[in-house]
Write a structure and sequence with these properties.
globular; alpha+beta; 2 helices; single chain; 7-stranded antiparallel beta sheet; 44% strand; 7 strands; Alpha-D-Glucose-1,6-Bisphosphate, Chain A, domain 4
Length: 139
C-alpha cells in the first residue's frame, strides 16, 4: 500500500482552517469550487461530486469527521484523478504557535503507475490544493 502526505503551515488559527475544510459539501476554498459540486446527503456517508472537466466527475465520500481532533477522512470511490485505487485520505488541522498546520495524507494502491510516481502525483496536487486553502483563509 502506498502513502502520500503534505503539510502546509497556515498563518490562520486552527479553528479558521478547520471551518474552511470541515463542511465537506462546501468547496468554496477551491477556485470555482462552489459552482462545480453536487452534494448528496449530509454528515458521514455524504458524497460530493466534483465536475472535473467535460464528462469527468470525481465522487468523494465522507467517512468520518472528528471536530475535537480536527480530522476529516474521505474516500474517492469513483473518478479517482490519480493512477490509484483504494484511495483514502485524511485531512488534519493542528494548532501551532504561529497559526496552524494542515496535513493532507492518503493511502492507496498504485494502478497503472509505480507507487513512487503515483505518490508524487498526489503530493503535487495536495501542494496546489493546500495553497488554495491557505489563500482562502488569508494566510
Amino acid at each position: 500500500m502506498g502513502q502520500a502526505s503534505v503539510t502546509q503551515a497556515m498563518n490562520a488559527p486552527a479553528e479558521t482552517v478547520w471551518r474552511a475544510i470541515s463542511d465537506f459539501g462546501d468547496t468554496s476554498w477551491m477556485p470555482g469550487g462552489g459552482g462545480n459540486v453536487l452534494v448528496e446527503g449530509q454528515g458521514p456517508g455524504m458524497a460530493r461530486i466534483l465536475q472535473a472537466g467535460p464528462g469527468k466527475k470525481i465522487r468523494e465520500q465522507l467517512e468520518s469527521l472528528d471536530p475535537g481532533r480536527r480530522r476529516l477522512v474521505y474516500t474517492i470511490p469513483e473518478g479517482v484523478p490519480f493512477p490509484v485505487t483504494g484511495y483514502r485520505a485524511t485531512m488534519t488541522v493542528d494548532e501551532t504557535p504561529d497559526g496552524s498546520d494542515l496535513t493532507w495524507a492518503c493511502e492507496f494502491e498504485p494502478d497503472g503507475a509505480s507507487e513512487e510516481d503515483a505518490g508524487k502525483a498526489i503530493e503535487q496536487m495536495y501542494g496546489i490544493m493546500l495553497g488554495w486553502v491557505r489563500d482562502f483563509v488569508g494566510s
